[in-house]
Amino acid sequence: MAGLRQGLLCLLGISLLLTGGCLAAARANAWKQKDQELRAGIGNTHRDTYIQQMGPPDSESVLSDGKTVLKWERTRVGSMPNYATGGSTVYQSGWRILLTFRPDGLLDSYSWNYW
If pLDDT is split at 50, 70 and 90, which confidence band does 97 have? Predict the structure, then answer.
């Protein structure tokens, strides 16, 4: 019985690792697509379009050269069972996007990161 339990726990651990890898690849592909969309928007897309798509920014700053920086940020904290220890593991994930707009409102540059 103990051998069966260990085997099931091992199988569960392997499946969680594989699922995590697939999810990480899907997330990376989604960010790659977002990067392409943002790059195409430089000089072409107005700030109102991004606000419409992503909602109101978390913060807005006006630079000395008249450009405006909008920031969106999301963080999620959760926990998942740790079958090796019988406890749980706390994790944090999230993302941040900074968009800089020229005085005429068109996208000038961007930066983003996720964790």
Answer: very high
